[in-house]
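Board notes (copied after class):
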Amino acid sequence: MKSFDFPYILKVYQYDESNSSCTMEFCECNLKDYIARNNTKLSFGFRLKIAMEFLYGLNFLHNKGIYHRDLSYKNVLLYTYKDGDAFVVKISDFGLAKENNSDLTSSGSVMKGSIVDPALVSFKDFRAVNDIYAIGFILSYIFTGKESLFVNGSPLILVIQKCSDNNPISRYQSVKEVIDALKALPSSPDPRQESKAR
């Protein structure tokens, strides 16, 4: 983690081998708590900024050959600035992370993680597309405040559903594809309001 010098990855300043502890950047809240507290007052644009910073961070990791393998609503953190609405998203908790060319996960490793891809048979076979499954749930939470996948047929929700399709072949195959899909969306209202109007 010390080598990950990127704005949307939690910084690690030092590692103490004597007690296996890290000194890390401080963030006062995680995504789950932040959205839960502020869900009714967040604009679509604000949510989109959270989503994009999260995706840029994960895209950086994947480009470095690192799969997170434990994405959740609680290990995406937000550093919020006290004066104004400025914030920075920080991806954290790399306890289950794996380099894509590493074989350190034994064949007997049990499935772990907060949002587990049902199509993943063995944890040692984890690939980018398995992180993308979790991305769908996290994006859904960012935009709707719900942990379950939201369904209403809007362009945004279709992007989210494609991330978490049960068939890995039908998903986006890279984080960059998810980023491009969000960038291509028309200026969109809150998907929850769209659902209410139907």
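Comment from the instructor: Strands lie at 12-16, 21-24, 29-30, 66-67, 76-80, 87-91, 98-99. The longest helix spans residues 44-63.
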